[in-house]
Amino acid sequence: MRLSTKGRYAVTAMLDLAIHDRVGPVTLADISQCQGISLSYLEQLFAKLRKDSLVEGVRGPGGGYRLARPSDQISIAEIIHAVDEKVDVTRCGGHEDCQGGERCLTHELWNDLSQQLYDFLDGITLADLVDRPDVREIARRQDVRSQRDRAYMMLRSTAA
């Protein structure tokens, strides 16, 4: 199984959003700058994430995106599924027509592995990742490098 950049970028962007959710909406430009993901690609991903009610847009000054639900209620599997990715290692996409229209000898093995991968990713929430010290340290380093926290604090103080 290979997770495409679509799934990886969606999880990365959602994690960035979850980390910064406490200070208000996050712009796609900020995520783009900190995570090195093209802004136009993020716009495509967030359209799908919004459609699946994982994020919501906030208009106006200080606008951007925020999580539509608490981070402990959004699983990694849900994010991957929202951007049309599948956690499937079978050759047939689970249709059981792997070998000339019939199930192949190892279909159940790969099907079971797919289920294990899905269960693993479904058991991890954004909050679980935000709580990891290594994730927090990387986010802090990215924020310092991009001067993101200062910009947020200035924006929030002028809006109050």
Overview of the molecule:
- The protein is mostly helical.
- The chain has one domain (5-87, 127-159): Winged helix-like DNA-binding domain superfamily/Winged helix DNA-binding domain (Arc Repressor Mutant, subunit A, Orthogonal Bundle), CATH 1.10.10.10.
- It is 57% helix and 5% strand.
- A hairpin with a 5-residue loop joins strand 1 (55-58) and strand 2 (64-67).
- Helix 1 (5-20) crosses helix 3 (39-51) and helix 1 packs across helix 4.
- The longest helix is centred in the first third of the chain and has 16 residues, at 5-20.
- The chain is elongated, with a radius of gyration of 18 Å.
- Residues 153-160 have low confidence and may be disordered.
List the topology elements.
Elements: H1 5-20, H2 28-35, H3 39-51, E1 55-58, E2 64-67, H4 76-82, H5 107-122, H6 126-130, H7 133-146, H8 148-159
Helix pairs in contact: 1-3, 1-4
Count of separate structural domains: 1
Low-confidence stretches: 153-160
**For the residues shown, what is the average pLDDT?**
88
Under CATH, the topology can be stated as: Arc Repressor Mutant, subunit A
Give the quaternary arrangement of the chains.
Answer: single chain
Instruction: Please outline the major beta sheet.
Output: 2 strands, antiparallel
Cα end-to-end separation: 48 Å
Category by helix and strand content: mainly alpha
Neighbour order of strands in the largest sheet: 1-2
Sketch the topology as an H/E string, one letter per element. Answer: HHHEEHHHHH
CATH class: Mainly Alpha
CATH homologous superfamily (4th level) name: Winged helix-like DNA-binding domain superfamily/Winged helix DNA-binding domain
The best one-word shape is elongated
Count all strands and give the number: 2
- If you compute it from the alpha carbons, what radius of gyration comes out, rounded to the nearest whole angstrom? 18 Å
Q: What's the CATH architecture name?
A: Orthogonal Bundle
Indicate the proportion of strand residues: 5-15%
Number of helices: 8
What proportion of the residues is helical, as a percent range? 55-70%
